[in-house]
């Protein structure tokens, strides 16, 4: 990101201070039965398939909260989906979070590619770049017969880091005026995270 935005050395150092106490979070969707690496995907139950007559979601539409997510999954196709905006193939706004509004777009499959991981941009990255990099809106609709295993690694900034648009991003946008462009508000990551989690599970039932 620093290279892409053309940040100065001083700006890079300031950004590093916001993530010098950052942390990775790993979550396996399922639970371990065997710790032997060669047995891993044969022994870790994950998402159960949705019933054929079920019109719901295995994991509802959402964006990841932090900076970056690296996702490793089994080969199950047509499960992970991402929302693409302003496409010309019709509009499908089903399962969009309220804050997304009804902007035209469609859900497309993000099928696993052998030897690769999926990289999702988180909401803090979107704020830092004032929208130059968009956080990935995604969901899971798993209808295959197998259990689907998903192992995400979440990279988060310091809990008390104040995240706000970087000067380098604003410089780029200043060269390309856009009257409709908004400037993102600053947030303290810990407050943002607790608010998101609290809203999602306030009634005892996760929205995702």
Structure described in brief:
With 208 residues, this protein is of the alpha+beta class.
Which characteristics define this entry?
single chain, 208 residues, alpha+beta, Jelly Rolls, 4-stranded antiparallel β-sheet, 10 strands, globular, disordered C terminus, IPNS-like_FE2OG_OXY, oxidoreductase activity, Oxoglu/Fe-dep_dioxygenase_dom, metal ion binding
The ordered H/E elements are HHEHEEEEEHEEEHEH
- Please name the CATH topology: Jelly Rolls
Structural class: alpha+beta
Taking pLDDT < 50 over at least 5 consecutive residues as the criterion, the unreliable ranges are 30-35, 39-43, 204-208
Overview of this protein structure:
The chain has 208 residues and is an alpha+beta fold. It has one domain: Jelly Rolls (Sandwich), CATH 2.60.120.330. The chain is built from six helices and ten strands; from the N terminus they run ααβαβββββαβββαβα. The chain has a four-stranded antiparallel β-sheet. Strands 2-7-4-5 form a four-stranded antiparallel β-sheet, with no helix packed on it. The radius of gyration is 19 Å and the shape is globular. The model is unreliable at 30-35, 39-43 and 204-208 (pLDDT under 50).
């Amino acid at each position: 990101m620093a290279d892409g935005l053309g940040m100065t050395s001083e700006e890079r150092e300031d950004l590093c201070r916001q993530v010098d106490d950052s942390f990775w979070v790993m979550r396996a969707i399922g639970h371990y039965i065997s710790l032997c690496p060669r047995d891993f995907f044969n022994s870790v139950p994950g998402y159960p398939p949705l019933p054929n007559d079920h019109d719901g979601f295995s994991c509802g539409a959402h964006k990841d909260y932090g900076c970056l997510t690296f996702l490793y999954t089994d080969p199950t196709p047509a499960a992970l989906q991402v929302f693409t905006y302003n496409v010309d193939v019709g509009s499908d706004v089903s399962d969009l979070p309220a804050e997304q509004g009804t902007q035209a777009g469609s859900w497309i499959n993000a099928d696993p590619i052998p030897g690769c991981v999926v990289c999702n941009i988180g909401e803090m990255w979107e704020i830092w770049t004032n929208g130059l990099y968009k956080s990935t809106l995604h969901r899971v609709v798993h209808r295959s017969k197998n259990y689907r295993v998903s192992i995400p690694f979440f990279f988060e900034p310091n809990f008390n880091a104040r995240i706000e648009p970087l000067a380098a991003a604003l410089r780029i946008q200043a060269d390309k005026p856009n009257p409709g462009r908004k400037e993102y508000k600053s947030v303290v990551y810990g407050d943002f995270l607790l608010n998101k989690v609290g809203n999602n599970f306030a009634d005892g039932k996760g929205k995702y």
